[in-house]
Amino acid sequence: MKPNPQMLEVWGDFACFSRPEMKVERFSYPVITPSSARGIFDAIYCKPNKDPASAQFRWQVTKIEVLKPISYIALRRNEVKDVASVNAINKWMAGTADPEPIWADGDKALLGTEEKGRTQRQTMALKNVCYRLCAEIRPWPGHEEKLPALEAQFQRRASQGKCFYQPYFGCREFPAYFKLVKQDEQLKNPILHDQDQDLGLMLYDVFDLSRPGYSDAKPSISLFHAKLCNGMLSIPEFTSDEVLKPGKEGI
User: Fold this and answer.
1) 64 near 130, Cβ under 8 Å?
2) For residue 146, which phi and psi values (nearest 5 degrees)?
3) DSSP label at residue 39
4) In a domain, 250, yes or no
5) How does pLDDT run across 164-192, given as a tens digit for each residue?
6) How does strand 222-229 pair with strand 197-205?
7) pTM of the complete model
8) Of 141, 2, 15, 120, which is closest to residue 71 (Cα–Cα)?
9) What CATH number has the domain bearing residue 162?
10) How far is CA 178 from CA 8, 192, 212, 235, in A?
11) Which of 65, 82, 90, 136 is the S-S candidate for 3 at Cβ 3.0 to 4.6 Å?
């Protein structure tokens, strides 16, 4: 049973798809990455993946179309240096410990150090972004017969603006707004055909998409050579040799 392409038009004021080679300050790719695009589809419709046996499908992004000119903006923000401990948060939720804030400013007696708990970092983000995303539902073995029902449920949710959580463009403070594009619908926003760019190696995903329950597994970085041609970025299959994965030559 062949999957039907599902299409979304997404837009927002700001976006940041951080390049992994930038250690301290964020610098965005010029175009949304396949992993961020998959995250938007997951936000609208996905099945629990914590138990591999219960996972029913995954999203395969196939195409990204750029609908607005690529434009950068420099943002300088204060960020806290510390990271909340997962164990501490679990204790707070269980009520076995009192919540403790992460202090951004204060004296040595409060912070335990003379250094401030915040630092100023710059982000090179994108502004006024708009994309048309195309993806397909790929059922895991044993769930192939559910494909029509899964596609119908996604279309119902997307057409009504429903999502499990607010989709975002790379960082949660950059919300992404979406609408479903039906296959027989006339496209109002044209592709920017004057956008041609060799993007070099781009992040493909941060998980191993070849196995059910990938979102609960350890991170597994994959890359691919991205080329923006006539405003369109074609995404190879995750199983393709074009995708560089850990353990393969070149990554």
Assistant:
1) no
2) -85, 0
3) H
4) no
5) 999 999 999 999 999 999 877 767 788 88
6) antiparallel
7) 0.85
8) 15
9) 3.30.70.2660
10) 6, 19, 27, 20
11) 136
Q: Which two tokens stand for residue 219?
A: 């991170």
pLDDT tens digits for 134-157? 999 999 888 889 999 999 999 999
**Do 186 and 195 contact (CB within 8 A), yes or no?**
no
pLDDT of res. 113: 60
Q: Which residue has the tokens 């996604």?
A: 154
The label of the residue with tokens 């559910």 reads: 146
**What span, in angstroms and rounded, lies between the C-alpha atoms of 155 and 182?**
9
| Listed residue (58, 64, 79) closest to 173, CA to CA | 79
**What is the predicted pLDDT for the residue at 109?**
58
User: Does residue 70 share a domain with residue 162?
Assistant: yes
Give the DSSP H/E element, type plus range, for residue 92. Answer: helix 86-94
Q: pLDDT for 187-203, tens place per residue? A: 778 888 888 999 999 99
Count the Cβ atoms, other than its own, within 10 Å of residue 146: 17
pLDDT at residue 86 tops 90: no
Q: How far apart are CA 195 and CA 178, in angstroms?
A: 22
Same domain, 96 and 219: no
